[in-house]
Specification:
single chain, 367 residues, alpha/beta, Rossmann fold, Helicase, Ruva Protein, domain 3, Zinc Finger, Delta Prime, domain 3, two-stranded parallel ribbon, elongated
């Protein structure tokens, strides 16, 4: 049986141009390579799954390449590049600080730093989750980080920059990686699906991208899960049932009921949601988000803030046009209040139902 490789590894970028949504950082690194103005230590920080370690590996491969392309990318064919791609490069050393965080581990690293590279110009040391180093390990590392040998270059990666001591921060060039936008994740997933021969609806891609919360690695893991669940054809319904996401349709129906002052209709829709296995707080926070999305849909300038696919976007625009602005503001206030008070409520279902009844009366008062 052929070994399965997860998409996060199979489609891991191997050049700067393939890195998604970190253009400012990749441009800066390529310019540093072009002008040969390389610092001796870098700190890559940002949320999980946005490409910190990937960029560190690409940077390490590129600065040791003996035949750079005109775009300042690694050639992929020289001895250094082939050794890197075959995972047998002695120039690039990766250390996981989560499990190697003692003074002894750092002393061992310092001893290793003295050895010059056999191929290429630099020995690159990538230290992942560097915030996990102990205070003593940080102090033991300070002198080497400030004045390493000419051939040594350090790239530190972390998700928690605030835990790193200032004396380490002051010795590094700091790069802050951004959360990846929903449309960028959806676009990359579409490319992966095409490569894998998987047919997937655009609305489904959008839901996966939202669920990933800015992390490409998480999005690719969810995609693999859904391929196992649904096979080579993935629909929007498959995604919302597998990921336990509440369908937009419930909220559109609810707002229609609110505008008609149908308290019973709103309560029945909420009951339907509970029978599907969703929790009340999940429902009410989703309702608040729906009101917010309707508000931004009212103005052509703010409609770009909607993180939904084309078909759902049109539904938002149509419903927003039929919904008074003052209703949305008051409804958002009531739903946010209910969301905030939900945990402390003795009768949670009743608190949500009361909020729904109050929202259903808003336009009635005006009439």
């Amino acid at each position: 049986m052929e070994n399965f490789i997860v998409s996060a590894r199979k489609y891991r970028p191997d050049s700067f141009r393939m890195v998604v949504a970190q253009d400012a950082i990749t441009s800066t690194l390529k310019n540093a390579i072009r002008t040969r103005q390389l610092a001796h230590s870098y700190l890559f920080c940002g949320p999980r799954g946005v490409g910190k370690t990937t960029c560190a590996r690409i940077f390490a491969k590129t600065i040791n390449c003996s035949n750079l392309t005109p775009e300042n990318e690694a050639c992929g064919v020289c001895e250094s590049c082939t050794a890197f791609m075959a995972n047998r490069s002695y120039n690039i050393h990766e250390l996981d600080a989560a499990s190697n965080n003692s003074v002894e581990d750092i002393r061992s690293l310092i001893d290793q730093v003295r050895i010059p590279p056999q191929i290429g110009h630099y020995s690159v040391y990538i230290i992942d989750e560097v915030h996990m180093l102990s205070a003593q390990a940080f102090n033991a590392f300070l002198k080497t980080l400030e004045e390493p040998p000419r051939h040594a270059l350090f790239i530190l990666a972390t998700t928690e920059k605030h835990k790193i001591i200032p004396t380490i921060l002051s010795r590094c060039q700091i790069f802050d990686f951004n959360r990846i936008r929903v449309e960028d994740i959806a676009g990359h997933l579409e490319y992966v699906a095409k490569e894998e021969g998987v047919a997937i609806e655009s609305a489904a891609l959008n839901i996966i991208a939202q669920k990933a919360d800015g992390a490409m690695r998480d999005a690719l893991s969810i995609f693999d899960q859904l391929v196992s669940f649904s096979g080579r054809e993935i629909t929007y319904q498959d995604v919302i049932s597998h990921l336990n996401v509440l369908d937009y349709d419930y909220y559109f129906r609810l707002v229609d009921a609110f505008l008609k002052n149908e308290v019973t209709g709103a309560l029945l829709i909420f009951n339907e949601v509970l029978n599907k296995g969703f929790e009340g707080q999940h429902f009410i926070s989703g309702l608040s988000r729906h009101f917010r999305d309707l508000m931004v849909s009212r103005d052509p300038v703010t409609v770009q803030l909607l993180e939904v696919s084309g078909e759902i976007r049109e539904r938002y625009k149509a419903q927003a046009a039929a919904t008074p602005h003052d209703f949305l503001l008051e409804a958002l206030r009531i739903s946010s209040e209910c969301d905030y008070q939900y945990k402390g409520s003795q009768n949670k279902r009743l608190s949500v139902e009361l909020a729904l009844a109050r929202i259903s009366q808003l336009t009635l008062k005006k009439k």
